[in-house]
Design goal:
Chain lengths: ~350, ~375
Amino acid sequence: MHLELRPVPDYKWQYLSPLLATMLTLLSGWLLFAWLTDAPGHALYVFFIAGISDAFGLSEWLLKATPMLLCAYGLAICYRASLWNIGAEGQLLMGALVGSAVALEFLDSESSLAIPSVILAGMTGGALWALLAGLLKFRFNTSEILTTIMLNYIAMNLLQWAVYGPLKDPGGFNFPESALFSEATLLPVLWPDTRLHVGFLFTCVVMPLTWLLLAKSFVGFQIQVAGQDPKAAVMAGYPVKRLGYVVLLISGALAGLAGAVEVIGPLGQLVPTVSPGYGYSAIIIALLGRLHPVGITLAGLLVSLLFMGAELSQIEMGLSSAIASLFQGLLLFFFLACDVLIRYRIRFSPGTVTPQPNH
Amino acid sequence: MLRFTVLPRLRWLTHRIVWLSVLMFSALANSAPLKVAFIYVHPAGESGYSYTHDQARKYVEDVFGDKIEVTVVDSVPDGADVERVLMQLARAGHKLIFPTSFGYMNAVQKVARRYPKVIFEHASGYKQARNVGTYFDRIYEGRYLSGVIAGHMSKSKQAGYVAAYPIPEVIRGINAFTLGMRSVIPDATVNVVWVNSWYDPGKEREAADSLIQQGADVLAQHTNSPASIQAAEAAGVYAVGYHSDMSRFGKNAHLTAPMHLWNDFYVKRINQVLDGSWKPESVWAGFSENMTTLAPLNPAIPPKVVAHIESLKEKIKAGAFHPFTGPVLDQQGETRVPAGTVMNDDALSKMDFYVEGVQGKLPR
């Protein structure tokens, strides 16, 4: 058995591969849970369905997906331009930091400008942080992969400095967290009695806009030409550098938006642990979603479901969190591995096969 | 006729039914176990903070048997996720929840308002509510004693301290250790390295190695991993563990470790919830209530030092001695606690200065 390069990629596998991956995941999950528990079917139910079987679960599911999706749409635009921005985490943190700094200015205010100011500030913070990586790349020819990773650490340390220093709650016994934001600064809840806030609507707006940009606009076309063949783009007279800045700014602003939405959404204050790695999960989501807004949305929902399933399997089944992460890993592995079938096909018994006519 | 015979029977029957159902309900109420949940920020593992809570969790499961049903959720990061986990636990019928990380504090407050019938016991926080109590141990008592031991064992008069974050809890530990060490060696110094993480074996090891290179021959730590113990064992110097007994990571190096002991507290609280006498409290207890203790002392510690430690421990337990008894001077030589007085709990809980003897500047 060996893998053979297809003469042309088989695009029907683009749709079949996730199906195959789902089946393999369910099968291996069933085996894994059959080994560990006496109710493998129930375990799969807890992992995939129980968490979202009521209004509470649905709202939490969308809430959890929101910051990751916002980052992932932006990353997809970057990756289409072959700009490997690994820095969504840092851009998100800068959005959270700058957004919080503004939110703290509105502590005693009921101004209706509070929320728009925080959101704008967050987007600006994220965008400027991405712009730094852009300047380093286009001025000094530094690899954006390295600089964006490094900038993540710098952002994390800046955030910690701020929470331990100027933004620390004066009445908080010196603990590293900001004061709780005022009501006027908090995003209104979208669905009564849940935590789902209007920040979720941003994903509903950003997804179609991303699609329009990539699939329907001339800029989107230029971005993708620049990504796939920079020389052709230069020959065609496209402003490659400017396009690079544009995609970085968009992606940084979206990550910054995610950070701002997180601090004035579910958190309600600035804490050192704003993000449990949303910016990194977003990379997986963007690639899992094949850099397509619809695919990303599905992938984001899947990843968010997995996070919730991991918690629920501990609560309902008493399974250890290590098993949950093992299962998450299996699923991601299958999803990425099955994609090999788009470009390759499996050949059994090498050497004995007579060449088949191409159809 | 019929009326006279049926009515008393009917009454008898309804009487019976009412009593039977009352009995059945009370039997059900007694047989349904109390659902108790623990939330940890890290996996329990084999050492560290979450491990100590998990040890106590096992203990209460043994003590209460069928009377309680215990759920554990680990690896829940501080931040937005814990609120969902808390709500899921409340919705799954848990009546007593122990969220054990400081970063859960505001989420606990929010969820407690939403589920007024669920009782929350939040470790290390400072916000109580009608159904939220808080607890932590006076680990600084154990820190002081470990400092005294370090003072007796150090030859270079220099200790190194691997610390996580500059919050009052950690600063208090550094100061208590330093005061203990200087009670034996008045000119001893303590160097601190901040690793900005509760758990990062790589960074902790680097910090420990560099402290040893600078001349420290006793290490102490306020982090979760046993990396400092391992570094000390490799370099042939001493080290003081933290959270739990870390002696198996370096049996020559490990002098002792200030340890949390949640067993008695958890048993007490679960009993109170079972018999309906639970009330929100802010508990901060140490040796006196067996909430803090020291890991078994290294046999290399001379018997007269062991005796000294024992007597100090008894004095602390009896309230006859307090580690922060004046005069306590800060790095600038300014008196923070005047001679003859003891630092009060309010000042202890807000501590934001180094005592004399700690080297370097406190990051702010």
